[in-house]
Amino acid sequence: MREHRVLVVDDEKLVCWSLSQMLTGAGYAVQTAMSGAEARAKFTDFIPEMVLLDVRLPDANGVELLKEFKGHDEDIVVLMITAYADADSAVNALKIGADDYIGKPFDVENIRHIVDQSFEKKKLRKEVDLFRRELRKKYDYDNLIGNSPKMIEVFKMIKVCAETDAKIVLVLGESGTGKELVARAIHYHSARSQEPFIEINCAAIPETLLENELFGHERGAYTDASKSHKGIFEAAAGGSVFLDEIGDMPLQMQAKILKVIDAKKFRRLGGSRDIDTDVRIIAATNQDLPLMVKEGGFRGDLFFRLNVMTIPLAPLRERKEDIPSLANYFILRLNEEYGRGVAGISPAALECLHRYDWPGNVREMRNAMERAMMLEPGTMISQEFFNQQIRNCGQAKAKEASPSVHEPPAVSECGYITLPPDGISIEEVEKKLIEQALARFNGNQTKAANCLRMSRDTLRYRIKKFGFQSAGRDDD
Ligand SMILES: Nc1ncnc2c1ncn2[C@@H]1O[C@H](COP(=O)(O)OP(=O)(O)OP(=O)(O)O)[C@@H](O)[C@H]1O
Ligand SMILES: [Mg+2]
């Protein structure tokens, strides 16, 4: 259990001393200040989580200090210390955000009780918040389904990362393979599970805001910064930060993350003090980081630091053994969600699921099952309500068994390849696949090249060779 930091501010030496003795004995980290100036300095250096604050100080008004402290850190707990004669200032202080007040003269044991309770309340508030936010998603974390050897390896790695409190974990895999579920599973199976899990999608946030989100800012750091703000590295203290889509993080931010990893410290924007950080970083991406490093889009030194405990998630097409258990699991979940009573899936429909290659991986399969369950009037899922691409794959098998002379195109929509009876130009097949890959990723060459397991240079060469005009965009 880490020690909570309490700052005692009172101009009476005896008050400071007795409170400090008692709180230290109760397991708190305590510092004292006997003036407003000293209190401000300790607020900045010691970063207290709670302040016991005398209303009357020789050089400052406690209520003003209260405003100041709350302005810098809205989570800070402030208990005002007032003489009974000062009841008005106490009420005033409560109105503007003090958490409680203590009348002088006081009984030290009673204060201990109030301090304990205030921390308890704060913790509870934080937990309730967290619980609400996480409830739905947390429900997911234990439901990482799969019994293929590749998934069993994933489960083993999750266990190791959680149990050894690995500080940096890298999760790799195509879109929809379950990277976020893995990140949550690590967090919620580890000793950090009671602390926050905070995710940030590096691709979805403009570069200028990303730094603010990660590290927070001090009041006045820029024009609109009227209050200080905790970034996720601070808010997730003791827990985990999930840096999703780290491949899309701008190079400048990569340098800053590397610094945080190395120094275990950071500063808020506009801040002058270092803040220690104790978070686990779980980074994920669907991009080919080594390739990006080669091409200068990702820092080699950061990749090196991240790539220690690495969990690769295979695409669903490479672990089709997982399909039946995933199908059953989705039926169970969707039955609950939609109040349905679907009993199972027909063998022909399951065959379709097996033959399809799932470019969108488990997410696409979940969506397909959801659609089929919504439309299916009976109690067995049939292939009738899968979309055409998935159904075509089921049919491809039948055709393969008895090839007709008028075989359709070599590359079916789902990527299943049949050699036509009178052969085909391999170049034609290649061209079609490149066309499809570029279309799937909106012309993003890095992603298209990854998907085709070729380097971006090779893809560029092919694009030129086949004379695709502006099909490819020079991305990233
Ligand atoms: N092994 C699994 N078992 C059960 N559900 C899964 C599994 N893998 C993925 N899913 C489900 O698939 C969907 C996508 O998963 P998730 O968001 O974790 O993927 P991702 O790899 O983070 O994708 P993206 O790169 O697009 O963010 C979610 O609905 C998730 O619950
Ligand atoms: Mg994700």
What can you tell me about this protein's structure?
The structure is a single chain. The strands form five sheets. A five-stranded parallel beta sheet has the order 2-1-3-4-5, sandwiched between helices. A five-stranded parallel beta sheet has the order 7-10-13-6-14. Strands 8-9 form a two-stranded antiparallel ribbon. The chain has four domains: 120 residues, Response regulator (Rossmann fold, 3-Layer(aba) Sandwich), CATH 3.40.50.2300; 172 residues, Rossmann fold, CATH 3.40.50; 101 residues, Helicase, Ruva Protein, domain 3; 52 residues, Arc Repressor Mutant, subunit A, CATH 1.10.10. It is elongated and about 100 Å long. The longest helix has 34 residues. The chain has 476 residues and is α/β, with parallel strands linked by helices. Helices cover 48% and strands 14% of the residues. The C terminus is likely disordered. It starts with a strand and ends in a 10-residue tail after the last helix. The protein contains 19 helices and 16 strands. The relative contact order is 0.07. The structure holds adenosine-5'-triphosphate and magnesium ion.
